[in-house]
Task: structure prediction
Amino acid sequence: MKKEDFTTTILVDATPQKVFDAVNNVRGWWSENIDGDTGKLNSEFNYHYQDVHRAKMKITGFVPNKKVVWHVLDNYFKFTEDEREWIDTNVVFEISEKDGKTQLHFTHEGLVPDYECYNVCHDAWTHYIQDSLKNLILTGKGSPTPKETEEGNAKTELPEQQDPAKQMTTKSICHRLLIEAPVEKVYEVITTQKGLAGWWTPETTAKPETGSISRFAFGPTYYKEMKVEELKPYSRVKWFCLKADEEWIGTTLTFELEPHRKGSVLYFHHDGWAAYTPEFAGCSYDWALFFRSLKFYCETGKGFPYPDFNK
Result:
């Protein structure tokens, strides 16, 4: 049986020139952490994502408004036994007309199911082509991995690493779990209305915008409101609780993501609790159940949101 390369296709109401230009604006849809020229035949550029993935590409095909080909000269994965997977594969963008629109057919030649990285790369490429690149074409704004900074790479202290005086004044709920889905997918699920409704509560109103207010209803009379304080694509989300049970108000909820060879690790901490109370204990248990729902939703497309989270 022939091994199938990874492929995905989008159809957009835009000119071939606009699609071609967007493809070559690699920092606008894939990653801002790219060095080198991404828009000229025989040029080379380097990509990196934290200490997890590095790649060196050479543009070996460049036909205006029709085709772009990247050849992978070098590659490093932190999370695979064979760190050099991807080397000598080709990333191909083919542009054509279909039904009065422009079709972009993406193929990663050589990225096949036998690769250890296949599942993670499959989901990551799907996100970057179907969502980020498509949005760049249609709206002028993609969702690339943001530029890394020393401040952004700083690790959050675990509760046991924090100042003892601070630990004595407030309490934290913490959970850590492995999700077999890439950080890009998990980030979408914890920031968008559709994603949040799929694992926490169907009665969700939310926007992935810093400063926005998200509302989560649990039955006809009870709801929570969260202010989105921080959104760092694919690595960190932070909320501040405005309305909920009295013990929740003024607490902060932080989701942190790290790439893993099987997908991603989510570290969640719900900080600012005044004391170890029955509400604190019950909330910790409920979060564990909801994160089970989140894991299933990311991995299978079906979660167990309220009211089914404890069944």
Remarks:
- The chain has eight helices and 14 strands.
- The first helix runs from residue 16 to 24.
- The radius of gyration is 21 Å.
- Residues 152-162 have pLDDT under 50 and may be disordered.
